[in-house]
Structure formats: C-alpha cells, structure tokens
Amino acid sequence: MTTAPMPLLKSERLVLRQIRTDDAEALFEVLSDDGLMTWWSSGPHRSIEETRAYLEPAAVGEWRSWAITRAGDDMALGWVNAHDRRENVCELGYILARSCWGQGIAREAVAMVLDQLLITEGQRRVFADADPENLHSISLLTSMGFVQEGHLRAEWETHIGVRDSLIFGLLKDEWTARRALSADPAAVPSVG
C-alpha cells in the first residue's frame, strides 16, 4: 500500500492529482464506453455506483492513480496508474475519455508520470502491457520509446475471452536520454 502522499503533477495545460471516489460521475463516461473498455481487464460499467466501487482502492491509496484534469478544471478525463511491482520497477496503465483523443493529452499525462517515476523517484524500469489488437495503446507506448519485450500467449481471461498480452518496457536511461534530446524545455512538466 502506498503510504506517502502522491505528488501533484502539473504542466501548462494539465494537472494530475490523486483520483477520488467523487470522480466516478466524470469517469463513468470512460468506464461505460463499450469500445474503450474492449481492451480493459473488466467489461464496461453499467452504473456510477460500479464506477465508484472500482475507484475506491485508488482513492484510498492502495495504488497510485493520478486523475488527468485540465488546468483550471478539476473534472477527471481519465487517469494514469503506477503499480509498484518490484523494487524500482513499476507497471503503468492509462485510460482517457474518447472525447479527449487526438489532443496529445494521453501522451502528455503519461510523460508527466514517467518523469515522476523515472527521473524524480529514480525507478530503473517502467513497463506496460497491451492487447495485441489495441493499436492506439501500442502506438502511444512505442512513440514514447517503449520497446516490445515479450508476447505472452493466453495471458488474460477477460470479458471478451482469453487474450494475449504484449509487454513493453522503458528504462530510466532511455527516458532521460530522450528527455535530454527534447528541444522544448517547457515539455518537461513540473511537480508541485
């Protein structure tokens, strides 16, 4: 269980804060979207109460889950999770409302959390898993420097059946080198 308070992560347009159970109303849009939930480990939610119960472990700090909000608007648009798996190794997960796609929000939010995990905290590795047919997630991961490290056959039993999983990894040195090459110093978000 995470005991330290989660840092607030800020960029010019986004604020990432700890998820709360009162985000259920906003995040029900995300978690009830049949298409979005195709690649999630559980099926689409059918009530706000189901979403509230789903968010409870993150809200009480059982895992780190940052709600993605726009600066000046506290409504949750999605989230980025970080689950400590081993010492200095985290698993990353994320989801974003379909209405926010194509605006670079997921990329920016994931980058903010990667900065927190790999630069600020000094984690050595972050990994994510994606269904082989989840092309949007695979594209996001590979565009950010994640490398496909494995293909686990029949790894997950989900609401759409037994699914394979692709494992993508990113090392601290790879992320810091990538950040050093960034021509825009404003692209590195702040922690506050």
Automatic annotation (TrEMBL):
Matches recorded under Gene3D superfamilies: 3.40.630.30
Domain N-acetyltransferase per the UniProt entry, residue ranges: 14-167
Alphabetized SUPFAM superfamilies for the sequence: Acyl-CoA N-acyltransferases (Nat)
UniProt cross-references to PROSITE patterns, sorted A to Z: GNAT (PS51186)
Entries under InterPro entries matching the protein: Acyl_CoA_acyltransferase, GNAT_dom, N-acetyltransferase
Superkingdom of the organism of origin: Bacteria
Full protein name: N-acetyltransferase
Species this protein is from: Blastomonas aquatica
Biological classification of the source: Bacteria, Pseudomonadati, Pseudomonadota, Alphaproteobacteria, Sphingomonadales
